[in-house]
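Can't paste images in this forum, so I'm doing it all in text. The chain is below; anyone willing to post the predicted structure tokens underneath?
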Amino acid sequence: MYGTHKRAERFYNDQVLDHLNDRMVEFIGRMEMLFVSTADNKGECDASLRAGPPGFVRALDTGHVAYPEYRGNGVMASLGNISENPHVGILMIDFAEDVIGLHVNGHARIVEDADLRREHPELPTDFEKGRTPERWVVVEVEEAYIHCRKHIPRMVPVGRDRPWGTDDAKRKGGDYFGAKELPKPWQTTRVGHQE
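Text version of the structure:
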């Protein structure tokens, strides 16, 4: 429809792998954040950020990537979607050094922390307070490919004191966008009050 068939075919032939090569494994090992996209069994999508110290996301081997799920807000939209539809897309971007990105698409499964550690005892054990993995998402790689640097902004990391594990709404960002008091279509209304 848009006349890009030949460009897309060239990209797939030149850049898309069905596994991780050595440079991709090294790249993953220094990432401090990733974006994960999921969808439920009806195709309703969600995109989310995951972050941790360098190497929090791991290439278990050339065919599998794992990232930890820490204690969070309890919504578990990504994990809920994965339990219905295992297709995931991960985007990792190096904003500071190489200014380049890596896409990893594949099938995900949810693995409890103790179970994955039995299979992979080399997983890290030294964690910051509130950052102990409860479970992991293990992705079987189907596609791995570059995200071109053309429109990636260069950013400089700065130190930040983070209140990991807090339930204090203000310290977590609270109702920053002012959504709490607004009506929601999924809330049922009875005469005189909202449930």
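The longest helix spans residues 5-15. Helices lie at 5-15, 22-29, 77-84, 113-119, 169-172.
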